[in-house]
Structures are given as structure tokens and as C-alpha cells.
User: Fold these one by one.
Assistant:
Number 1:
Amino acid sequence: MKPDWQRLFPEAGHRWQMHLRPGNAARFWGGADPAVLAERHRWVDMAPERHAQCLPEGRTMAAAALAWLSETAALKPALQTLQESARRLEPDWLVLSADPADGHRLLGGVVVFPSSWSLEAKLGRPLAEVHAPVPGLQEELGRGISAFLARLEPGAGWERDNWGLSADAELNHHPVRQLPGLEADPLLDAVWLRLETQFLTRLAAVPALLFGIRVSHHRLDALAAQDGIARRLAESLESMPEAVATYKGLSVARAGLVRRLRGVDGS
């Protein structure tokens, strides 16, 4: 599905937003680009334990997630292991406890294409700790996230989007790779918007939540050519708190990007 850029970049400038919409599970989990699957194979073959992990207490939940994913994505034969799912599914996925008393701990999953974080560092942590490095996110959305998770029913799927800017179109941004970030005053055709389309549902078979992440890249010059997007993105960058810009790796490049975006059709 084509991203809704107007929704992703509202007129209000930067603020953390849930922006949930009803999800289409079959569309999100089904289908896969052979080139993307080949990329996933390559990374999993190089470091299988880095990209697929599960706590002992999460094995039952992970097995239920594999069964749900197999049925939803119409995979035959069904998935049997985390590493198999890493090779056959395009999205990454995480399974979390559905119990608010333990803070919805991250129990396991498959993350081949992380956005500058590592599964091994987050495993076993409650959701609030997983979100803790993101400046202002827990303060602005933490209560809303908790309320949403409490109401989430089995069978209901929801989607949302998250974005960042990158100096490359690499899918795997694991911290161990130490990929170079954006430099000052980059050209728009040398910057990519990294879009995470996220999916969330509650499993019926076990007390667990399933969270999916599908990554795509969009070159910034092409995106900025769309009606009103250059102006909206410039406003989002300008209004972004410095702590957030630092977290997103935008501090050095922000002023130059804003100037170039403002120059698109006089935006």
C-alpha cells in the first residue's frame, strides 16, 4: 500500500503520534520481494543468533506467533523456527507479554533490519524501557500506548508508521555495522526516508502481543517533489526538539536539509 505522506507529516510540525489505523494482516505479512528475502538470508547466515532470539519463558508465545504468522501469510509448510521465519517472511516481528503487570516484556522475535537498535540489547525489557532512549516518547505517548494495549482484542490488527532519515538505503541498520550518518548540508538525492510500517495484534492462543515491522526506503528528492511534502517535512525538522534530532541522527544535517526542502517550489 502506498504510504499516506500527508498523514505522516501533518501541518502541526513535529510531535510524537500514535496515528493508528485498522491493519490488513494478510497484506502486511504476505508476499515478499525475492531480493529482500535474499538480503535477509545473507544477514541471518552471517549472524543467526544476533537476529533471532527468544527467552525461555517466551518459547510458548513464540511458537504461537509462528503458527499465526504461517496461517496469516499462507505459508506452506508452516514455520517451525525463528530463523526459518527470518528467511521466509519479509517483515521483522516481536512477541511481547500481554500482561500489563510486567510492563509488556519483550520475550523474543526476529529482527534482521533494525533501525539502529539491537534485539539482544532489548530482550527481556518492559516496553517502557525499550522506548526509554527515545526522547519524550514515553512522556507523550506512554499512557496512550498502555490504554491501547489493554483494549486490544485478538483478531484485531492495527498499523502505524514511523520515519527517520538516512545517508543510505541499507535495510540492516544494526549498531554493530557502524554505518556513517548524515553529514552537514546533504543533497536531497543523497538522503533516504526510512519508513517503518508497524503492525500490532493480540494473539488468541496465548497471552501475548505480536508486533511487526516492515521497512522501506524513499529517496528524499522524489518524496519532496510531492505536493506540500517538502514544506511539511521542513516544518517537522524545524520544530523537532534538539534531543530528538540528536537521537534520530539529524543534528548535523538538519539546517541544510531544511534549507534545501524550503527551496523546493518555494516551500
Number 2:
Amino acid sequence: MTKTIYAILLALTVLLVFSCRKEKFNTSSDFQLEFSRDTVLFDTVFTAIGSATQVFKVYNPDKNNSVEIDYFSLKEGSSSKFRMNVDGEAGIRIENITIAPEDSAFVFVEVTLDANDQSLPFILEEDLLVNANGAEQEVTLLAWGQNAIFHGNLDSEVIICDEVWTSELPHVVFGIITVDEGCCLTLQPGTQVHCHSGSGIFVEGCIESNGQRGNEVVFQGDRLGLDWEGVPGQWGIELDFVADLGIGPEIVTITRGGIWLYEADASYMDYTIIKNGIIGLQIDTTGAGSQPVMELRNCIIQNHSAIGVLGQGATITGYNDLFANCGQSTAAFQYGGEYIFDHSTFANYWSEGTRQAPSFFLNNYYETTVNGFDELIVRSLGDSRFRNCAFYGDNANLTDYSEFIVDVEMPEMENYFFQNCLVDSEQDLSDEVKFISLINQQNASFVDPTFGNFRPTLNSPLREAAIPLGGALGEDLAGVSRFGGVPPDIGCLQYVPE
């Protein structure tokens, strides 16, 4: 009996000790929670009002200590389209959730959307904030918004071979979608393509954009409303990779064209507008036999934070094209290739800050290091030519500044030429084989370039200074005839009397 009483007292003593022991918490401000997902995507496409729920877990990786999460909070607060529930507690802000050592909490997130509500963005994006020990971490919530055709997901996506996009609904690109080798993406007249931040189209096959005058194909960002209509830098392919910058490995983001052709097949764009990105169109080291990789006919590429069209060892032809208002160059053609343009305007009136690059740049080489030695690699410009083109910008009035730079190694070995063009350049243009009948360092005098009107004024030097070319060039970008009994105007647009 005495032994039994002793055992009971001992058990009660142990229980008392453990019940009095305080739960230990990790209180370090350097502590990091772990998440099963850093981005939660609701990729359901709704045809009416509907809801969807996703779940993720929050882990406490500490083996010995609990952690108290100060709060879970939806960043948009009461205006959020999302709702959450953490371990059975619902709200837009949930406080004081304890997670035991090496344990986790479930977070359920729900969104309810009316896909026909045109006040919604195409992609709804919000951060769910998680704060522990004063350190805030984020989980990104993404949901398809108003009714559209969505392409892409959290990973890159290869689209169906020989896919056709119509104008029935807007097309929204999320992430990087790929047109595979041997396949073609075709866009019908009037198709509207909206690309999310960091997103774009990577083309290893071909792209055929069949816009029409007044029914153009348009590539732009996915932010809607007048406030976003003229905002550059909204979209474009972004790639993350790990690089050693001398202080240890870091994640580096590089930017490529919003539409990026790499070793692609012969493609074309008719009456196509590409606007408000980082680099609008990029074509790299490509060749399609005797055909150009890209034909740009009656296209507008404008308002990009870096470059409008970037060619690197590419073969590009075009006519009646407008390249305008970019943070660096409207067009940069480098590392050789072949570029043939007629009646096109390269005009840079960038208003978002100071611009250091010329409106137009052409070269035929690049520098590399081989076995520790610097080496200059020269690549031919083929039969590149530019006729009846305008190369100008609002930096033309600066001293020792060129809006038109042709930097060619061994020019005597190259067949390129510029004929009947207006340029602004400080370089030597005395070679009458390469530079034929140019107008240099005269104000192009466009009607209103800041607001996109690149027609020449009555007294512009562009007037009646072009050579007649006929054929498809009998009309300008807007359909105005160039046949009037007098020489046509330089550039993509004819003078029209007020």
C-alpha cells in the first residue's frame, strides 16, 4: 500500500513539473517560416460568377521551439477579392497563431469573381502577408480575372503546335509561353494580346500576325484603364538564374524581348502594334534560308522602356513601320545580320527621363574573350539597305550627340547603304556609296511626336525628298497615297494638309 501511494505521489509530482514548464518560443527577428508554395495560382477560368479555393501550409522548421505568428493579413484589406482561413479561423487579418516545433498550419484561400465584370483586371494579384517576430514574409495570390483566354502558368508552357488565336476574346499571357520548333502561332485580325509583368512569347518556330488597317493585332500589358495606357515597361520576358558576382552566388534577372525569336523560322507581322513593354521585339542569331526571319509590314513598335526592336545577327525586312519613343533605342541592329527597310520612321521622343542611347544603332561585330585574350568577331551585314527612312529624336539638339550611329568594322567589305534618308549624326557620312543623298542635322519637324503624330509638317525637310518605290509602298502606314505627281515624303507617313 505504501509503495502504491509513493508511485501515485511520484506521478503527480512529474505531472506538476511538466505542467508548470513554459512553452519555449523562437523570438529571433532573423527567423524564417517556410511555405509549401510561395505563389498560389487560381487558374480556373470562370464563365460566370464562381469561386475557387486553394490551400498551402506554413511550416515552423525549428526543432525545439514553437513560433507565434503575429498575423496573417491580406494586403488589400477589406477591399480584397480573396478570403482566408487559418486553422479554422476566418478573416482578412488573423492574429496570434502558434505553430509547435516542426509543425505546420493550414491556410485556405478562396476567391469569388464575376468573369464578366470588366472593372476587374485580367490577372488579379495580391500578397498575403505573414509576420512572425516582426519579420514579414509574403505569399503571392494570383487569380484569372475577367473573361479572357489565358495562356501560361507558374512554369513555362509550350503552346499547341500551329495554334490560332482569334479576336473573339482577349488573350492573356502569364509567364513564358513557347512556340516550339516546326510549329507556328497565327494571330487573326483584331486579336488583342495582354502580357503580364515578366511575361512574353518565346518563338523557336514561327509567328504570323495578320492584322489589318483599322483592325490591328495588338500586343501590350495586362493593366487596364487610361492610367496604364502610356506606361512603358509593363511586360517582357524575364529570366532568373544564379550567378557568382564575386561576393557569392546571387539570383540575377535578365530581360529579353516581349516577343523573342531565337533561331526561328520565317515569320511576319502585318498591321501589328507592340507597345508598353521593356524590349518590344527581339530577334537573335536567326536565319531562314533566303527568306528574312521577320517581315514587318505597316507595324508600330513604341513606348518601350529599353528598345523597340532588337536584332542580333538577325535578318529583318520591313516597310511603312514606325519605331518610336523608347528609353534607349527605337531600333538596335547589332552583331551583323541583314536589315532591309523602306519608308520607315525611327523617331525617339522619350519623355520618361534622360536618354543616353541613339534612336538608331547598327554594327557588325562583337567582342569576346578567347583563351584569356580579347577578340573582335566581325559578322557580315549582307545586303542591308535603308531607303526613304527617317532617323531622328529629341536629343538631336544636343552638342556632339548622334541619333543615328553606324559603327561598322571594315566597311569597305560590306554592301550596306542608306539612301534618301533623314538622319542626325556627328559621324563622317562622306562615303557616297554607303550614304546616298542623305539629309543630315535638320529637324524632322513631325506634327506632334510626343502624342504619337509622326506625320511631317508643311515645312518639314521630309517633304517630297524620297525616291518613288511603288508597289506595296504606294500607300503610307495610314493608307494615304504616295502617288501625287511629286516625289513622296521620307518616313512611314505622308504629309496631310491640316
Number 3:
Amino acid sequence: MKLGYSSATAGIYKVDEAFKFAESLGLEFVELIYDYCDYLSDAQPAKRVRELKAATGIGVTLHLPFIDLNIASLIKVVRKASVEQTLEALEYARAIEASCGVLHTGHIFLYQPVPLEQAFEALYDSLSQFQAAGVPIALENLGLLVDGLVKGPEMLRHITDKFGMHNCLDVGHALIEANRPWADPLLANEDNISSYIDTLGERIIHLHLCNNNAQDDLHAPTTDGHIDFRNYSSFLNAFKGSICLEVAGGKEAVAKSVAHIRALEAVAI
């Protein structure tokens, strides 16, 4: 089990501290977010990330930029800025030798036929510009939001295949989506997680693990919420990709989740 954590979600801002904490828990990677490079410019310089990787043997994944951005925007200037920011982030991902880059698929604020069609065209144009990135791109499921453009596992799989990309499965997002009005009523609660696993299949190279109340994206420790991770112990143990604990609440919450998920390695379903 290749286990790591999101330093940003945990509230850790300095890359030295992020690696030190990962090392203390015996984790295999740290997930950084590119947005820090803009609003905390000295937090994670690429040179320092490479030095820490070499010194510790701990790898990195990168969450590509998402704050105030929308690669499917109907507004050209917004989409242009979003694409440019993502391309810069992909350069950074190459510089730090990230094993993958997690990417959000965009939003649509007018969920009507004409703007919806144009938003998908915008998304496809944006994704086409990332195909030569040189870093595996993992498209994340975001069907929990009413303004999310891509909803449900089938649509995400279609787009992933269309551009030869990969997936990040966020189990918390999948649980919440099951309780949204647009979800398949047959996929209640954890059934939607299983549907994503089955539908995305080998395209999944990265996981975001946390827990929640099936309504809000709380990023709670894996022990605290409606997801029973014992139901996925076989999947997690067999998974060859990277498993990121995207847990808020500081170091204690992350450590609690690390212990919980590692305990599942001994569970046979």
C-alpha cells in the first residue's frame, strides 16, 4: 500500500515540515498543491522539493491548480488563465518529478443545453492542451457539486478514455454524490463508491481518502463518518497506485487516519 497525505489539507504550509511529518509516519509520498506556488511563493520551491525527496526517499504527487479557476469556463479570459496556470503547474510537476497531477474537470453555472454543450467543448479544448504534459494526469470525480460539469462514473470514464488520461477517485466525493438529486437512485451511499471503482477500473492511479457525513465535504479522518473502509480493504490492499489521505484537522487527524488505513492491510474481506 503506497500511502501518503495532502499537506495542504492537513494545514501544513512549509515543505520541510511536510516532509518531516511524512517521514515520522513512514509515509511514501506527500501531496502538494500548486496553488501554494502563487499565494505562498516561498513555501515549496522546486529545488527544495527535489532536495527533500533525495534526502528522505519520499515521493510527491501534485494537486494541479483549482482555486478560482475553471478549465471549462464559458468565459474565454477565465478559461485562458486557467489553462495557462495549469500548464505552468505541469512544468512544476515535471520539475519536482511528481508521480501524477490531480486535475479538476471544471464547472458550469448555466446548466442548460446550449451553455452545457459549449462548456464540454471548452473542457475538451483545455484537456487537449495537457495531453503532452509528460506527467500522468488524474481527472478527479467532482459530482458532489451542483455546478460540477462532469457527473457520474460513466461520464468521467468517457472523458478519461477520450484523452488517454487517468483518474483520481475521491471516495468522499463519491459518497456525497450518491445523495444528490442527479445521482442514480440505485447507487445509494457506498454503492456509488463501488460504481466508480468498477467503472473507472484500471484508469484509477490515485486515491483521495477521507470521511464525511454523506452531505458535506468535511475531509474528516477516515474513522469519522459514513464510509466503512473495511468494505474496501481488499481493493486498497490490491491497489498499485498512490493512496492520499486528504484529511483536515492537523497532524493528529492525519496520524489517526494512517493508523486506521494501515490496520486494514490485515483485514481480509
